[in-house]
Amino acid sequence: MTSGKIDKPLIEDNRDDTVSIKYDPKEEGVHELAVKYNGEHVQGSPYRFHVDSISSGYVTAHGPGLTHGVSGEPCVFTISTKGTGADGLSLAVEGPSKADISYHDNKDGTVTVTYLRTAPGEYKISVRFGDKSIKGSPFFSKITDEGRKRNQISVGSCSEVTLPGGITDAD
Q: Could you say which DSSP state residue 134 is in?
């Protein structure tokens, strides 16, 4: 957590070779989620994310596109403008490649933002309302160049090879 304290999420077995991780934050600010398998971080771990309290009149942003993604695949996040209106909202994505940005007004006080990067690396996402950065902005998103497999864990395999006769241990 932001204070340096450690908290544990709830891990549920989905019984389909996947797990769900649920976390109820107790502090605002930047948090890190370490995901390990057999004591080793899975690719992309630890994941950094910003926790904010959402109340009417404040602009906030949340979603996976603010923290991670895959090159060539769309990244999505949501901006909540409840109680403020969307006028004066601006955003920028800076990084190793140009990002194509599109947005959709959901007509419920939120805006869905989608951006696409063509190169891996760290991208800086700046969200501003009026002339001020919103809380947590700029956000930093790690973009990998691997597909869905980046978050899957490979346990490994074994291959046996029969060698021709006449080979000794010394050989």
A: P
